[in-house]
Structure formats: C-alpha cells, structure tokens
Amino acid sequence: MPMSEIDRLIAEVSRSVQEPAVLSALRAVPRDRFVPLEAREWAWEDRALAIGHEQTISQPTIVALMSEAAALTLDDRVLEIGTGSGYQAAVLSQLANSVVSVEVVDPLRRRAAAVLVELGITNVVVLAAGGELGAPDHGPYDAILVTAAAPDLPPPLIDQLAEGGRIVAPLGAREHQELVVATKREGVLERRSLGPCRFVPLRGQYGFED
Questions:
Q1: How far apart are CA 146 and CA 80, in angstroms?
Q2: How much is the pLDDT for 181?
Q3: What are the residue ranges in the chain where pLDDT is below 50?
Q4: Does 117 fall in a domain?
Q5: Which residues are catalytic?
Q6: Residue 176 domain-assigned (yes or no)
Q7: Considering only CA atoms, which of 23, 162, 19, 149 is closest in space to residue 79?
Q8: How much is the CA Rg of the chain, to the nearest whole Å?
Q9: Who contacts 30 (Cβ-Cβ below 8 Å, separation ≥6)?
Q10: Is residue 210 part of a domain?
C-alpha cells in the first residue's frame, strides 16, 4: 500500500521528534485546512508556507519540536503568542487542557478562529492582541509558546508563567535565532537551546523595530 501524505509527513517529522503524543497530535490535525487554497498542494510537506500579511504557517517539524519541548500534560493551560494560521494552536489542543492564543493581525485571528470552530476544537480561545503582551487575565500558564522571534524572553511573559512552567521561543537576531526552552524554577529561568531556527519577527515593544 502506498504511503499517504500524512504518513510521509509523520515519517519526516519523526526524524527530529519521537514523542508519541506529539506525533499523534500532528496526525489528528488536518494541516491543509490551515493554509490558503492556493498553497494546499504543499500542505503536507515539511516546510513553512505563506499565509498572507507577511506571516507563515510553521514547518511541521518546528511545530512538533516546540510542542515536545513544552512537555505538556492534559491538565496544562497554554498560552500561544502569535496564532497565525491556527495550526500550532490546534496541535496544542490535542496535548493540553486549554489553549489561549493571541494574534495581532485581525484577519488572521478571525480566520484561525473560524477554522478551529469548523474542526470542532473547543478548548482553544483566540484573542486579539491587546495593550499588554500575552493574556495575563487568563493566566498563569503551565506553558507559553512564542511563534515569533524576539531578542530575548519578554518579561511580561515570564510573569505569566507558572512555577515549573516552560516557555518555548525563538530568540536572537531578526534573521537568525535559536529555539530556546526555559523552565521557571523558584522564579529563575533554566534555559537550553533546541537548535537554530528562523521565525517572522515579533511585533511591538519586545520585538524588533521596523
């Protein structure tokens, strides 16, 4: 029997990520529903794709790496900074109790929220970005994923992270970053690098100036 598109994608991702729950989450989420119609022929390839508004849907391997690094349980509350297409939030919805996702680009926020509803995903709330980074009123969070590059971990997000919580973010320069996971222990962050990456820049005070 020939290998299906999703089987090929999972085989590719599993070269970097072996956590069964994460691979099952990727298999459960139809990535083609989160990309524009003109890009759907490439939806099951392991690469980032443009979704408009100078934003991208991340490479599935990166989505899986970030999800694995967050070390989620089904009791966890998760904050995502940068909803984008909604794909990462949909994957997280399979691994955690609840997900709050924040997006600054309103057309992307509305589209992501609509797709999540269409797919019957009920444990994700998509919010418009407000004056303060994150969603402190819904926290604290057991894990925070930042899907846009920043020079360093933004202090407001550290404040929203629960004791023992994990924050995963691409940190560094505008063009090249390291994917970092930091665990909060007694108010101090213990960091480790997951390797090089490249994300679109975070907007606002804690991102990069235009």
A1: 6
A2: 97
A3: 1
A4: yes
A5: 58
A6: yes
A7: 162
A8: 16
A9: 119
A10: no
Instruction: Give CA–CA dist 3/69, Å, rounded.
Output: 28
Which amino acid type is present at position 161? Answer: L
* Interaxial angle between packed helices 5-13 and 20-28, expressed in degrees from 0 to 180 and rounded to the nearest 10: 150
Q: How many domains does the chain have?
A: 1
DSSP structure string for 72-140: --TT-EEEEE--TTSHHHHHHHTTSSEEEEEESSHHHHHHHHHHHHHTT--SEEEEE--SSSS-GGG--
pLDDT value at residue 82? 95
Is residue 206 one of the residues assigned to a domain? no
How many Cα neighbours within 13 Å face the side chain of 60? 29
Q: What range defines the domain where residue 88 resides?
A: 5-197
- What is the C-alpha separation between 5 and 88, in angstroms, rounded? 19
Instruction: Please tell me the predicted confidence (pLDDT) of residue 99.
Output: 98
pLDDT at position 208 is: 84
Question: What pLDDT was estimated at residue 175?
Answer: 87
Residue 98 is part of a domain; what is its CATH number?
A: 3.40.50.150
Question: What is residue 131's predicted lDDT score, i.e. its pLDDT?
Answer: 84
pTM of the model: 0.95
| Burial (Cβ within 10 Å: 0-12, 13-18, ≥19) of residue 40 | middle
The per-residue pLDDT for 59 is 95
Residue range 143-152, pLDDT digits in tens:
999 999 999 9
- Residue linked to tokens 């490249």: 198
Report strand pairing: 177-185 vs 188-197: antiparallel
Question: What is the DSSP secondary structure assignment for residue 41, as one 8-state letter?
Answer: G
Q: Which pLDDT value is given to residue 1? A: 40
Give the model's pLDDT for residue 3.
64
